[in-house]
């Protein structure tokens, strides 16, 4: 049965754009030489598209008061990798979303030298860059955060036109890989070797959320609540957009990772715990967590252990099923009591 949306659960704005029109009328503005190489591989002269993007921006939602025991189960998986954007079978009743670890100003740094998670995703999906230019030109707010409130952005139907291998050791002469600032320093031949065109393109749904930045010391209750509220808003918006216009609700899958733990200096353990809680609150069917490497996997497992033993012993394993109603403020107070601290920016 299709879920009825209340006013507070409807987007601030929703617009649909033809990708071919976007790329022609609002071409990406690429400034860095290596980004230009990637763009030329992804969208060579004469490229066309019949695809369409659905852009929506959502207002912040208030958290529920309790975790309900009768809500659907959220399954938690992890992969020791970065996003691979595996295509969803056409006949599957599944809608998948990949996080964009966003700046408050949507896709703002795509044309420059940096190749962090946000910029990597846009480079592989060049229509997102054209969408940024169109929003700015048309006076549509391209913000994932406004006046201290989260306003997550969803983009359905983005074409992935290339894959860039930034992993350590993937390209000879670059043992640390091409991620982050390493990309800007790479030789042209290395960038070309690392970039593979995808033809025909695959389709990705994007959820852009800005994590808090610039904190220090231990996380306070208000910071923790704001992080959960941001993720809950974004995840709920993804679920609502997934079921829009469908007679039967599909399985909704969120692909995420250490959101806000790079340039923003977030704590990996905390951000894992809070995203799992938000996914459960938002009634997401499955959360796929990308841990990058062994160290990341160890952090993820530690976070899940803390969640199950210290924060919510009422849940059942990696299937986040609550045995009884639990006060959300009480849960967040337990998280605060962990005394987890902000890290520092990784410079990427």
Features:
348 residues; 14 strands; alpha/beta; two-stranded antiparallel sheet; Leucine Aminopeptidase, subunit E, domain 1; ten-stranded mixed beta sheet
Describe the structure.
This protein has 348 residues and is of the alpha/beta class. The chain has one domain: 3-Layer(aba) Sandwich (Leucine Aminopeptidase, subunit E, domain 1), CATH 3.40.220.10. The chain starts with 10 loop residues before the first strand and ends in an 11-residue tail after the last helix. The mean pLDDT is 92. This is PARG catalytic Macro domain-containing protein. One of its GO terms (molecular function) is poly(ADP-ribose) glycohydrolase activity.
Termini separation (Å)? 44 Å
State the CATH architecture.
Answer: 3-Layer(aba) Sandwich
Number of strands: 14
Main sheet, how many strands, which sense, barrel? 10 strands, mixed
Query: Which secondary-structure class do the elements indicate?
Result: alpha/beta
**Which blocks of ≥5 consecutive residues have pLDDT under 50?**
none
InterPro entries: PARG_cat_C, Poly_GlycHdrlase
Pfam families: PARG_cat_C
Domain PARG catalytic Macro: 200-295
GO molecular function, one term: poly(ADP-ribose) glycohydrolase activity
């Amino acid at each position: 049965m299709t879920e009825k949306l209340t006013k507070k659960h409807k987007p601030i704005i929703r617009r649909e754009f033809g990708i071919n029109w976007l790329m022609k009328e609002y071409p990406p503005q690429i400034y860095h030489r290596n980004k230009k190489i990637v763009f030329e591989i992804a969208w060579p002269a004469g490229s066309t598209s019949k695809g369409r993007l659905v852009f929506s921006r959502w207002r912040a939602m208030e958290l529920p008061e309790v975790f309900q025991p009768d809500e659907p189960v959220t399954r938690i998986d992890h992969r020791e990798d970065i996003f691979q954007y595996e295509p969803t079978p056409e006949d599957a009743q599944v809608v998948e979303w990949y996080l964009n670890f966003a700046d408050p100003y949507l896709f703002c740094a795509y044309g420059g030298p940096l190749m962090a998670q946000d910029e990597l995703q846009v480079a592989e999906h060049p229509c997102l860059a054209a969408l940024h230019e169109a929003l700015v030109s048309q006076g549509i707010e391209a913000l994932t955060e406004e006046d201290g409130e989260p306003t997550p952005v969803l983009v359905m139907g983005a074409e992935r036109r290339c894959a860039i291998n930034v992993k350590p050791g993937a390209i000879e002469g670059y043992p640390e890989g091409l991620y982050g600032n390493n990309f800007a320093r790479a030789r042209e031949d290395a960038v070309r070797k690392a970039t593979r065109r995808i033809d025909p393109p695959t389709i990705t749904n994007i959820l852009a959320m800005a994590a808090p930045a610039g904190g220090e010391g231990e996380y306070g209750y208000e910071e923790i609540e704001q992080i959960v509220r941001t993720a809950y808003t974004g995840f709920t918006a993804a679920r609502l957009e997934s079921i829009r216009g469908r007679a039967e609700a599909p399985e909704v899958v969120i692909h995420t990772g250490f959101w806000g733990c790079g340039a923003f200096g977030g704590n990996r353990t905390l951000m894992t715990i809070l995203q799992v809680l938000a996914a459960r609150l938002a009634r997401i069917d499955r959360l796929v967590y990308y841990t990058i490497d062994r160290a990341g996997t160890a952090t993820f497992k530690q976070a899940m252990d803390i969640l199950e033993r210290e924060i919510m012993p009422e849940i059942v394993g990696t299937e986040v099923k609550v045995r009884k109603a639990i006060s959300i403020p009480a849960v967040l107070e337990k998280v605060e009591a962990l005394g987890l601290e902000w890290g520092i920016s990784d410079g990427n």
